[in-house]
Each structure stands twice: as structure tokens, then as C-alpha cells.
């Protein structure tokens, strides 16, 4: 049975020693596992996600296979390739040990805007470059 974060916090708070942490079911922190789960959940193929994300296929396949770890920008690009919601994007980032999108950060605010308005990665890139912000794109 899945436990939510507050249940885990209560268990940690009430634990007599840190040894009890070894009995917990933690989420994996590898991006590849989350990407594979998203493929199943979204019922899509790697190549379709990679094309929508406009990423270098060679690098992206290595991320899916776990041979390399994507950086935060690459994960955000993949999130657009998966057509994730804001909540789904933040879960992907958090579970891959990256910071969630933060509305008070100008660049993140444009990413959030694009997600909430169902824009694609190309539209996001236009917002970022127009506002002199670092783009997500990866050189192909």
C-alpha cells in the first residue's frame, strides 16, 4: 500500500532509531525508471516522446536506458515530449532529484505558463529566447 509523504514523516518522527528507515519503501531516484513508467502510463513510444521533445535521439535513448542521467533541462524537455501536466512535471523533477518548477523564478514561470496552456516545447523556447532566458534546447 502506498503511503503519502506526511505518513512517512510521521513514521520518521516516531521512529526510535534511524535503523527503522531501512524498512521503508522509498521511491527510486533514477530518472530512467520514471521515464519507463511514464511510457507505460502515457501509452506512448520513446521515439514519439523524443521527437516531441526535439532532443538528440542518441542522448535521449541513453537516458531512457539508464546509461546516462538527464540534466534538469533535458527532463523538462522530455516532460514536454510526454505532454505532462504541471503536477506530473514536478513529480518527474522531484523524483529525479531536481528542484520542482518554482513560480517565483522567471524562467520557471514561463515553463509553468507553457505547461498550463498546453503549449509545445517550440512555443516555450520562443518565450524563453524572446525574454533573454536560457533555452532548454540541446544542440543536435
Short description:
It comes from Dellaglioa carnosa. This is HTH cro/C1-type domain-containing protein. The protein has 140 residues and is mainly alpha-helical.
Structural class: mainly alpha
State the separation between the terminal residues, measured CA to CA: 43 Å
Share of helix, binned: 55-70%
Distinct helical segment count: 8
Q: What is the CATH domain class?
A: Mainly Alpha
How many domains, in number, for the residues? Answer: 1
Instruction: Tell me the strand percentage band.
Output: under 5%
Rg, alpha carbons: 17 Å
CATH-level-2 architecture: Orthogonal Bundle
Protein name: HTH cro/C1-type domain-containing protein
Task: Write structural notes for this entry.
This protein is mostly helical. It has one domain (29-130): 434 Repressor (Amino-terminal Domain) (Orthogonal Bundle). It contains eight helices and no strands. It has helices at 5-14, 31-42, 46-53, 57-65, 72-82, 86-95, 106-116, 121-130. The longest helix has 12 residues, at 31-42. It is globular. The N and C termini lie far apart (43 Å). 24% of the residues are buried. The mean pLDDT is 89. This is HTH cro/C1-type domain-containing protein. It comes from Dellaglioa carnosa.
Topology:
Elements: H1 5-14, H2 31-42, H3 46-53, H4 57-65, H5 72-82, H6 86-95, H7 106-116, H8 121-130
Helix pairs in contact: 3-4, 3-5, 5-6, 7-8
Keywords:
mainly alpha; 140 residues; single chain; 8 helices; 434 Repressor (Amino-terminal Domain); HTH cro/C1-type domain-containing protein; 58% helix
Amino acid at each position: 500500500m502506498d503511503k503519502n509523504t506526511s505518513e512517512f514523516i510521521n513514521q520518521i518522527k516516531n521512529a526510535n532509531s534511524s535503523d527503522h528507515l531501512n524498512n521503508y519503501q522509498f521511491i527510486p531516484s533514477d530518472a530512467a525508471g520514471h521515464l519507463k513508467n511514464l511510457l507505460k502510463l502515457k501509452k506512448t513510444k520513446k521515439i514519439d516522446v523524443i521527437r516531441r521533445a526535439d532532443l538528440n535521439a542518441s542522448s535521449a535513448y541513453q537516458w531512457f536506458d539508464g546509461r546516462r542521467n538527464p540534466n534538469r533541462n533535458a527532463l523538462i524537455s522530455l516532460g514536454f515530449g510526454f505532454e505532462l501536466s504541471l503536477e506530473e512535471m514536478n513529480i518527474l523533477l522531484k523524483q529525479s532529484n531536481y528542484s520542482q518548477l518554482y513560480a517565483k523564478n522567471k524562467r520557471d514561470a514561463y515553463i509553468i505558463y507553457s505547461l498550463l496552456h498546453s503549449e509545445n516545447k517550440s512555443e516555450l523556447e520562443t518565450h524563453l529566447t524572446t525574454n533573454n532566458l536560457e533555452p532548454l534546447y540541446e544542440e543536435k
